[in-house]
Design brief:
The chain has helices spanning 13-24, 66-77, 92-117, 125-151, 160-174, 184-193, 197-200; strands at residues 4-8, 29-33, 55-58, 61-64, 83-84, 158-159. It is an alpha/beta fold. The protein folds into two domains: 4-81, Glutaredoxin (3-Layer(aba) Sandwich), CATH 3.40.30.10; 83-196, Glutathione S-transferase Yfyf (Class Pi), Chain A, domain 2, CATH 1.20.1050. The strands form two sheets. The protein has a four-stranded mixed sheet. Strands 5-6 form a two-stranded parallel sheet. The longest helix is centred in the middle third of the chain and has 27 residues, at 125-151.
Length: 212
């Protein structure tokens, strides 16, 4: 199987999603780290015009975005493992749950980049509303997680929902963004998912630039 490159960051929750998929599907890959997220040159982001990560490079072609990359990895792996994608879950609870996870992932990036990287005041209404909405999404997920997992096919190896939720909750702790203790169901789920080898192999860390 041809090796591919995943351009992103070991500290990024969006990058960790395809990293977990790559390990689960046994797709060989090289992580190419982006060290400075303040850069505005698309070349730094493997040519992504939106200046976002992650990006997958394969056979001279680029795939942008975590979910797109995960689908491409499944195709590359040719694995028969049962992957549950969002479109397979057609009840309202499942659709809302994945939406809340996507919202939470985007909200955390907003808070971290704006207040920690950009050094903007956290009491700005933009960040105050973002934090309130983030907390609301986490409460909703915590309250509805059992029903959401019950709606999932029993025979599955992996689901995008579970991977993205795990990456989100662990990143809250890694970047000390919001306390997770109030969300007992999310904490219990994350602890159980963390036992998977793919989760242990992709633990959050900061990439160290190569010595020059």
């Amino acid at each position: 199987m041809e090796s591919v490159q995943i351009i992103g960051r070991s500290s990024s929750l969006f990058t960790r999603v395809p990293l977990i998929f790559a390990h689960e599907l046994a797709v060989p890959f090289e992580l190419v780290p982006i060290h400075d997220m303040t850069e505005v040159d698309p070349a730094i982001y493997a040519g992504n015009p939106a200046l976002k990560l992650p990006t997958l490079r394969r056979a001279g072609s680029l795939v942008f975005g975590a979910q797109n990359i995960c689908r491409a990895l499944q195709e590359l792996g040719g694995s028969r493992r049962r992957i549950v994608w969002p479109e397979e879950l057609r009840d309202d609870l499942s659709r809302n749950a994945q939406e809340m996870v996507w919202h939470g992932m985007a909200a955390q990036v907003q808070l971290v980049f704006g207040t920690l990287v950009g050094k903007l005041p956290a009491d700005n209404i933009y960040f105050q509303k973002g934090r309130a909405g983030f907390e609301g999404a986490l409460r909703w997920l915590d309250e509805n997680l059992a029903g959401m997992l019950h709606a999932m096919p029993a025979q599955r190896d992996l689901s995008l929902f579970e991977v993205t939720l795990f990456c989100l909750v662990e990143h809250l702790v890694f970047r000390d963004t919001l306390p997770v203790a109030p969300y007992r169901s999310l904490v219990r789920f994350t602890r159980e998912f963390a036992a998977r080898p793919s989760a242990q192999l992709t633990a959050y860390r900061y990439d160290t630039p190569a010595a020059t």
